[in-house]
Amino acid sequence: MTNAPSAPTVDPSAATDYTGPDAQPDAARLGNPSFVWRFGQERRLAAIERYVSLNNRRVLDLGSGVGEYVRAFARQGAAAIGLDVDPPRLAEARQRSADGGWHGTEFLAGAGESLPFPDNSLDVIVMNEVIEHVDDDRATLREVSRVLTDNGRCVIFAPNRGYPFETHGIYVGKRYVFGNIPLVNWLPRFLRDRLVPHARVYGHGDWRRLLEGSDLEIVDQGYVFAGYDNIAVRWPRAARIVRGVSYWAEGNPLRRFALSHLVILRRRETARRELSHG
User: pTM surpassing 0.90?
Assistant: First the structure.
């Protein structure tokens, strides 16, 4: 493994503490980050590495939470940076990295709509269940395009409208109910969005519409089921069965009922150059 590259220069004026809206519970406003590293996280890391090399790359985890994926990227040889809007989570991420000896990782405060990086400065950007929470998903993708290198890639995991449970909880009037709520995502969108105003959900065709007029295009689009780690702790045999059936379904039409989309993006000029040299 080669030495990781140096991280890109950060704009100090854009890397100040972020003070966003704070009226909702964190689970609703920001989602729950990965607090531990288990099979489900390892499986997503493997999915990322099917499309991009992390070794010797400048990698941003946009919406990094407490930094579990940032440290995983660093283990793979990346110059790994985490960006998040929540100061307490950033503080915990920095502490966890210091306690674990990961002094090369970096954690910054900021929002996806205004990334504190120069143009063409990052090789890989990962958004793991994050794009549904940003204020403006189109503006965030414009920023992703701006800071990606010509050969860079963006890897997105995002909630799937076909999944039969809403994982972000719902609002019943003014009362927030956290949990996996069945069938909410299958309601007409205006009803679903009234119950879940704090997190978007995406259908299969939404990605092309979201990218219209942008400098990004889809390299590949798939689906991933959950890791079922909580089931594995209590009922290991049941988890093996559920995992086997679910991961088999990722390769056939049943994938439309998976937990998350997996979308790989690149800048359009990269695609044109590769086509012209083909």
Answer: no
